[in-house]
Protein: Ion-translocating oxidoreductase complex subunit D
Organism: Candidatus Marimicrobium litorale
Amino acid sequence: MALMRLSSPHAHGPASTQRVMLKVLVATVPGIIVLTWFFGYGTLVNILFGSVVALAFEALALKLRGRPIGFYLSDLSALVTAFLLCIALPPYSPWWLIATGMASAILLAKHFYGGLGYNPFNPAMVGYVILLISFPVQMTSWAAPRGLAATPGFLESVQACFIPAAFDGITMATPLDLLKQNSSLLIEDLWTQNPLFGRWGGLGWEWVNIAFLAGGLWLMQQRVFTWHAPIAMLATLTLLSALFYDGGSSASGGSPLFHLLSGATMFGAFFIITDPVSSAVSLRGRLIYGALIGALIYIIRVRGNYPDAVAFAVLIMNFAAPFIDYYTQPRTYGHGERGEP
């Protein structure tokens, strides 16, 4: 009697690209709400405009490639790219900056390589890095958080997007910027004299990171991704910042709590490095991949020219992901280690 031969993967429940992408969009909501509370409607306007532009570029690329537009738009991958890139952009970004970033992410980083599933680099981070290198002034001008200045209303936020010259908002450097530029004050004095630093990681930033942590933990509970890469990244970042923390001198790189709750740490750990296409695949590989990203983030933050290094660290490790997977393939059942019969 012939036996039925079944091959992996074996699905244990309803799973689809659309369902996964929808969960990622839902998980960003807490972070978006906190960003809106502390920095005004700028991020929300970025997302609304960026989503329209991303869908338009996605439809254009699909039409040029002769692919069914409705089928591929419904997988929500373009919306996820738009959300992730627009969250990373400074609030009240001008429309042309958002459009340029979306074109880079959707057309260059995604469809140039063959579309979803074939892109070797994270599309949102490609768009972000291109903007950061090309337009450093616009990309490093963050709005003042609630408590230091009044946050603009929704109509003012729309005006900032489409008529940038007419918008007169208060912008300033981020806590990571200020710490990198500091050369004379002790950490304790820096925190005391500048209210932007808040309690742990910067006024507003600490709660933004906690909100993205909550969304990321929910995604982990939903088994959208495994714990290996994000936990390895956060553990390595914590370890290095603790080992090299000198107690708070003027040359200090910051405490572990500051690095964990400032900048895009939690957003990067749970929403960027967990991209299933451009990251490592094997479980051991994900541990190595996440740990190296954490190390690069700390090195670039402390020794590099850019205060927040998530995008650069992710793209560098996207290069290395296939190499990591090659050397961390799990042992095939019935065979020995690599090279053994």
